[in-house]
Write a structure and sequence with these properties.
Helix content is 0%, strand content 51%. It is mostly beta strands.
Amino acid sequence: QLQFVESGGGLVQSGGSLRLSCAVSGTTKDLWPIGWFRQAPGKEREFVAGIRWIGGSTYYADSVKGRFTISRDNAKNTVYLQMSSLKPEDTAIYYCSVAGGSWGQGTQVTVSS
């Protein structure tokens, strides 16, 4: 069973940057693409970005393409989300997980206008 611990969120002004980290534990991580998701107040959780452990192929939601970059450090079992040109609509709790996986506590990102 994979487990995820997110960190790196905070309060930032519009146009600013943040880097989120996701520490992954478990024995099957190499088999799964891992993704970042977010949930804003009153909205459904949505996909943000994904990456394959093997090969490193990346995928992005249209709303963040060109502004966010997902990466991973296999040696540290950690996935990152570099967020730039942040907008108030990026405000949400950010989570990482795999398809059908469990959810951690997430990390709050708040972008002020």
